[in-house]
């Protein structure tokens, strides 16, 4: 089905479908793979507090701003700015989003590929009887093996492209809404097991007891980057998605519900990981990007029916990754289809091939290109840093400035209230945040974090 091919645009059909699709974008590897290892590297509880503050004060307003832009214009991330601000430089924000989408797709598919490999390892019962040393070895051997992770990455990109091609409503909505509740249940089960392991308490206190001596400008920027990455904001993914929302969607409650769901999943992932890590005698900063792949197979083995839990977990994680990666790819595809009048199929193939090309360098960051580093970071870490800590915050900053200062406040209010059908409380607070608090806060955190100001 040629959904966004010129003329008629497709959309999401039900209210639950909208929230499920936006939550499907937000909830993904960012919560379950990225959050725990970034928390581990950033010192635990204090980072968590700062992160939660950023989600509430900056994340939700940025998300809401993207919704306003997307639904009002019914356009892709670039076209939306072009419609609202023709003959200005604002559409550059859309272009930045498209660049960010490529970068994220490239490294996201690396990790999603790892997840697929772990589905295969679960299936073949490869973790059975293995301790921490063996599990770490299994992961590291795989990570540096080159060809195998590449194969899985390509499979993942192809899967993403196939779903994108099946169209917005039929594709995205159908897959995301049935499966995510199962992931939640599994995470709850894993968390319960993790906190009941011997010596797990230290893990809980690491995650929840703030130690502010661990906080510095870099950690604060990490928290901002994590919040933006996890909420899928700052690059127009949610401009694109909300362009498919119907006119009666309540944007504010959607933004709120999606953000809360996102935070809950991340915290549950933290509870599943840290107590188990301490119980296994690992240090919280030890894991890096491989953290969940080394720790969770330990936990699975201590659960009745662990074989099935492990299999189900990695399958669901791969699906969560898929519902996020389609939202990333859709940013580029909607742009190509709407701005260059391409067929959806053509746009998808071009995007997938280009993403796979950059993706190869990410996946080979620990093998072939191990020696290629930028300021001490390998290719993978460099692209992750560039997207999460630079492009997304910058995009978010420009998006709030746009909605807060360029758009007329009556226009914004009109969109948020569905032309007056909804009562919106807190409108002035929202306006105050996007005009003053968010831009100043993001700018300071950003400039401080990259060492530009002290
Ligand atoms: N939010 C997704 C996750 O947490 O896995 C990743 C992501 C999706 C980032 C879409 C950015 C984006 F635009």
What can you tell me about this protein's structure?
56% of the residues are buried. The N terminus is likely disordered. This protein has a two-stranded antiparallel ribbon with strand order 1-2. The protein is globular, with a radius of gyration of 21 Å. It has 454 residues and is mainly α. The N and C termini lie far apart (53 Å). Helix 7 packs across helix 14. The chain is built from 18 helices and 2 strands. Strand 1 and strand 2 form a beta hairpin. It has a single domain, classed as Amino acid/polyamine transporter I. The structure holds 4-fluoro-L-phenylalanine.
In this entry the ligands are:
4-fluoro-L-phenylalanine
Q: Decide which structural class fits the backbone.
A: mainly alpha
Q: What is the CATH fold-level name?
A: Amino acid/polyamine transporter I
Report, as a whole number of angstroms, the end-to-end distance: 53 Å
Largest sheet entry: 2 strands, antiparallel
Strand order of the largest sheet: 1-2
Number of strands: 2
Low-confidence stretches: 1-7
Write out key terms for the chains shown:
Amino acid/polyamine transporter I; two-stranded antiparallel sheet; 18 helices; 2 strands; globular; disordered N terminus
List the helices and strands and how they pair.
Blueprint: H1 15-26, H2 29-41, H3 45-73, H4 77-84, H5 91-123, H6 132-143, H7 147-165, H8 168-195, H9 201-208, H10 217-231, H11 237-242, H12 251-279, H13 291-301, H14 306-339, H15 344-363, E1 373-374, E2 377-378, H16 379-406, H17 409-416, H18 427-449
Antiparallel strand pairs: 1-2
The structure holds 4-fluoro-L-phenylalanine.
């Amino acid at each position: 089905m040629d959904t966004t091919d010129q003329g008629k645009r497709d959309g999401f059909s039900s209210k639950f479908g909208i929230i499920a699709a936006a939550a499907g974008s937000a909830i993904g590897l960012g919560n379950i793979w990225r959050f725990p290892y970034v928390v581990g590297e950033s010192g635990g509880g204090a980072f968590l507090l700062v992160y939660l503050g950023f989600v509430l004060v900056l994340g939700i307003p940025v998300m809401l701003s993207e919704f306003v832009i997307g639904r009002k214009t019914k356009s892709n991330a670039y076209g939306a700015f072009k419609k609202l601000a023709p003959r200005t430089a604002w559409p550059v924000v859309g272009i930045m989003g498209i660049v960010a989408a490529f970068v994220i797709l490239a490294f996201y598919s690396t990790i999603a590929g790892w997840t697929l490999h772990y589905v295969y390892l679960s299936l073949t019962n490869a973790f059975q009887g293995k301790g921490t040393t063996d599990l770490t070895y299994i992961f590291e051997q795989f990570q540096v093996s080159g060809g195998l992770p590449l194969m899985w990455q390509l499979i993942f990109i192809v899967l993403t492209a196939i779903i994108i091609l099946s169209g917005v409503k039929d594709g995205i909505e159908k897959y995301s809404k049935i499966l995510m509740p199962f992931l939640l249940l599994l995470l709850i089960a894993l968390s319960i097991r993790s906190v009941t392991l011997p010596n797990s308490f230290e893990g809980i206190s690491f995650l929840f007891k703030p130690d502010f001596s661990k906080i510095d400008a870099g950690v604060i920027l990490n928290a901002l980057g994590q919040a933006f990455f996890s909420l899928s904001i700052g690059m127009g993914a949610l401009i694109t998605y909300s362009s498919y929302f119907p006119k009666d969607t309540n944007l504010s409650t959607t933004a709120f519900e999606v953000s809360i769901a996102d935070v809950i999943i991340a915290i549950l992932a933290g509870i599943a990981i840290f107590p188990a890590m301490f119980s296994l005698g690992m240090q919280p900063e030890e894991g890096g990007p491989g953290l969940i792949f080394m720790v969770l197979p330990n936990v699975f083995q201590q659960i009745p029916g662990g074989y099935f839990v492990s299999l189900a977990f990695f399958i669901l994680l791969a699906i969560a990754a898929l519902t996020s990666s389609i939202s990333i790819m859709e940013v580029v595809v909607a742009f190509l289809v709407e701005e260059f009048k391409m067929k959806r199929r053509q746009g998808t193939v071009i995007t997938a091939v280009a993403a796979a090309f950059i993706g190869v360098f990410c996946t080979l960051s620990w093998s072939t290109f191990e020696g290629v580093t930028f300021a001490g970071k390998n290719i993978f870490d460099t692209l992750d840093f560039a997207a999460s800590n630079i492009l997304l915050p910058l995009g978010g900053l420009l998006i709030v400035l746009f909605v807060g200062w360029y758009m007329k406040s009556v226009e914004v209010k009109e969109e948020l209230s569905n032309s007056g059908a909804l009562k919106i409380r807190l409108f002035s607070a929202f306006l105050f945040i996007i005009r003053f608090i968010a831009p100043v806060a993001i700018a300071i955190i950003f400039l401080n974090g990259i060492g530009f100001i002290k």
